[in-house]
Design brief:
The protein has 21 helices and 25 strands. By secondary structure, the chain is of the alpha/beta class. The protein is globular and about 85 Å long. GO terms for molecular function: protein serine/threonine kinase activity. This is Anti-sigma regulatory factor (Ser/Thr protein kinase).
Length: 733
């Protein structure tokens, strides 16, 4: 057996822990010999001077049981035992490369085995199973003996085999802010949306017959989610207090966070807005909430001129495919497919609804025509006049945490929100009606065989899909981003043909599908084709970029670099995301540095503010959001992410992924597939990075990669082949 000590100064026996420093030791054991007694002796020895002597016997017993399970059930020649200690907690894990997960058994009174995990469950404060590096890690933990058992906290999660297993807690020096659980938020959002739909969701409707709430479901749900998070987070704001910053009129109910990108908008309800929802403030409706802009005739005239221009002979005859795009991701997803179709003689027209130059779809070649929507199409135009018995609470209330939200007031607040909305992701109600007219006209003029979109849940995509369905045009959606199981009702899929990344997404697509004859095609992601064809020179260039960024920021050249793909969370969750990564890198052995890659909607300062300025901090750099994790991840030795699609990209290019399962967040569950290491706190991050330092990155089996994202650089060709067949079927008599 081999010994690898990970504590400072190469010490082999763990000494009393220094606050904030995680001391670790690991040893590899062979399945031959008296393995259980060797493991027990190792644990007893390691804990001799650690301050955990009182629980050392129990810890040694449980470690021996887990070792016996490996020898009895896993098809491996060796396994690894790791001991980690900090000022608060002891954590012991047993890792082997057999990916099969253990099952808790309930043996009979005469059975001589099968009690190992039951014993672990009975004695340990917390325990669980984590898929890691193509194998599995079974772990358990104890708090420092001076801490009472009642003060320890168990947090249960469900393992892939269906048993409830506690998450890795303890061992985390970074205090997590109180965040409402994902299920608690989802429940509150769902009940508010159902109440809004039942009481107020039927009228008004677009000229095409689509209800206002169906059109605006995604942005309204986004707003309601913000409201629920505010109500479930105590101490952040007193919703019963009407805030008057100048002692005069109440502040606005809604504010808009500066997202930095037009395709991302983040509405926030102020303290006054929350007070109004809960009945603690009174403010009557104003005509401006739902009146049509005085400039509406000009906007409609511009739409009419645009449609007339589209029908001119110089713009060519009808195109087989009509595509809708409004973001750079749509461009990256659609262009490879349309290029392949062009090579096969299939023409296409792209309706570009983007509102900023960086998101534009630029035409290349004669077979792809791009027409930008008129600027006035998506300008502010007024909100829906929702029939509301204003001031009458009989419309109903919904309980959210300790608060009763009045549905009539929620409907009124949504009116205001949709009156002031603008842009491609959350247009105002009047702008949505305008856009429906434009899309209807384009379908009538172009007469396509297929309507192709990358998003059919947001207002523009939904209006396009519904309009195409009314005209009998085939509808197709290419999944352009990662899907999470928790999104559920907020992410319905309405197209008939749905192209998803891989088998992982097939059940999610079917669960979300609203088309009665939906066809799901797991053919990969066209915008990843170039990624899979990238050369070693590209990887080397990105590695140099990371090293240069760290040296410029810190003057240090760490041996290994991890990248955190940041996500546009609120302040508390962003702080937790960054501090967990920083603390995990600090605790890990192996000379790691950390690069923080802001999301395109974030600024560098949004992320940098949470980096600790202290001598013990690891080397940390923040890079330009325009580069982001996507522009540098292939040069890293590890990628940390909660639910970014960069995690999928990292899997495809063999960069190890650490999936941050932090409080109040949801993940892509890549760890459930064995494609990532699940990290619930900074200690899990430290252990995973330390494992990479000592063992390197294990190549993922092709089957795991394929489950995450199918294809090997030819997804655009595969998607185009299906669309080509649809066009030909349409032309057959």
């Amino acid at each position: 057996m081999t010994d690898q000590s990970l504590g400072p100064c190469g010490m082999r026996t763990l000494s009393a822990p220094v606050p904030g420093r995680c001391l670790m030791s690991r040893r590899t054991f062979s399945r031959t010999g008296d393995h259980a007694s060797q493991v027990r002796a190792y644990v007893i020895h390691e804990l001799g001077e650690s301050g955990f002597r009182a629980v050392a016997d129990d810890a040694a017993l449980l470690a021996g049981e887990l070792a016996s399970n490996v020898v009895r059930h896993a098809h491996v020649e060796e396994y690894e035992v790791a001991v980690a200690v900090d000022a608060r907690c002891l954590r012991i894990s047993v890792y082997d490369r057999d990916p099969r997960l253990p099952v808790v058994r309930h043996p009979g009174p005469d059975d001589e085995s099968g009690r190992g995990l039951l014993l672990v469950s009975a004695l340990a404060e917390e325990w669980g199973v984590t898929a890691r590096n193509g194998g599995k890690e079974v772990w358990f933990s104890f708090s420092r003996p001076s801490r009472s058992h009642d003060e320890s906290r168990r947090t249960a999660s469900r393992s892939p085999n269906g048993h409830h297993l506690p998450d890795a807690g303890g061992l985390d020096a970074v205090p997590a802010p109180r965040s409402p659980g994902a299920s608690e938020v989802a429940d509150g959002v769902q009940r508010l949306m159902e109440g809004l739909a039942a009481g107020f969701g039927h009228q008004p409707r677009t000229p095409g017959g689509v209800s206002w709430l169906r059109v605006h479901h995604v942005p309204v749900r986004r707003l309601v989610t913000r409201i629920v998070r505010e109500l479930l987070t105590p101490g952040e704001r007193d919703p019963s207090a009407v805030q008057r910053p100048d002692g005069g009129a109440p502040e606005e109910w809604l504010t808009e966070e500066d997202s930095g990108a037009a395709e991302y908008q983040f509405p926030t309800v102020t303290g006054t807005g929350l007070a109004y929802l809960l009945g603690a403030a009174e403010m009557g409706p104003t005509q401006a909430d739902f009146s049509v802009s005085a400039h509406e005739p000009e906007a409609l005239h511009a739409v009419g001129q645009w449609l007339t221009s589209l029908a001119e002979p110089r713009n060519g005859t009808s195109q087989a495919v009509l595509a809708l795009s409004w973001s750079s991701r749509h461009v990256e997803t659609l262009r490879p497919v349309l290029d392949v179709l062009a090579c096969r003689g299939v023409s296409s027209l792209v309706l570009d609804a983007s509102t900023t130059a960086s998101q534009r779809f630029h035409a290349v070649g004669s077979a792809i025509t791009v027409r930008s929507m008129p600027d006035s199409a998506l300008t502010v135009g007024g909100g829906p006049h929702i029939p509301v018995a204003r001031g009458v609470p009989a419309a109903g209330v919904v309980r959210v945490g300790a608060n009763d939200v009045r549905l009539d007031r929620l409907a009124h607040l949504v009116e205001r929100f949709l009156a002031r909305s603008a842009g491609c992701t959350q247009p105002s109600w009047v702008a949505a009606c305008r856009t429906e007219r434009l899309i209807e006209g384009a379908l009538r003029t172009v007469a396509p065989r297929v309507l192709l979109v990358c998003n059919d849940a947001s207002p523009l995509g939904l209006l396009a899909i519904d309009a195409a369905a009314r005209r009998g045009v085939e509808t197709a959606l290419i999944q352009h981003g990662a899907w999470k199981a928790e999104a559920g009702a907020g992410s319905a899929v309405r197209s008939r043909h749905v192209f998803v990344m891989g088998p992982r997404d097939v059940p999610l697509a079917r669960a979300r599908a609203r088309h009665p004859d939906v066809q799901v095609h797991p053919l990969g992601q066209p915008r990843y084709d170039a990624l899979l064809r990238a050369t070693s020179a590209t990887r080397a260039a990105q590695a140099r970029y990371l090293a240069t960024s760290l040296y410029a920021a810190t003057g240090r050249n760490p041996a290994r670099i991890a990248v955190l793909a940041c996500q546009p969370f609120g302040a508390n969750r962003t702080a937790l995301q960054v501090s967990t990564a920083v603390e995990g890198v600090r605790r890990a052995g192996g000379d790691w540095g950390l690069v923080l890659a802001p999301h395109p909607t974030q600024s560098m300062s949004d992320v940098r503010r949470w980096v600790p300025d202290e001598p013990s901090a690891p080397p940390v750099a923040v890079i330009d959001p325009s580069v982001g994790a996507r522009g540098c991840l292939s040069g890293a030795q590890a990628l940390l992410t909660t639910s970014s699609t960069c995690g999928i990209e990292a899997v495809l290019v063999d960069v190890p992924v650490l999936e941050l399962a932090l409080p109040g967040t949801t993940t892509l569950r890549l760890a459930d597939l064995g494609a990532a290491s699940r990290c619930a706190n900074s200690t899990d991050v430290a252990i995973a990075l330390d494992d990479l330092h000592h063992h390197g990155a294990a190549a993922l089996p092709p089957a795991i990669k394929n489950a995450v994202c199918a294809g090997s650089g030819d997804s655009a060709t595969a998607v185009a082949a299906v669309l080509h067949d649809l066009c030909r079927a349409y032309d057959r008599p």
